[in-house]
Amino acid sequence: METRVALVGVIVENPDSVEKLNALLHEYRQYIIGRMGVPYNVKEISIISVAVDAPQDIISALSGKLGKLEGITAKTIYSKK
Length: 81
Hints:
Blueprint: E1 4-12, H1 18-27, E2 32-40, E3 45-54, H2 56-67, E4 72-78
């Protein structure tokens, strides 16, 4: 199956959703190239970037599930290759 490289940008505004967010990332761990999280205490949010290499439907499913969590926003950008 053909895969795509993508970056999922995640903004966490509700710290109570972090456990569910981490559980989802663990569920999709086989597709994750790497991740970086930056707490931004001034605004009381966290910013997470997750690089993935996966089939299109897997990336869409992950992004959609993340975006459904309360206080979590997720957007995805894709490589053109």
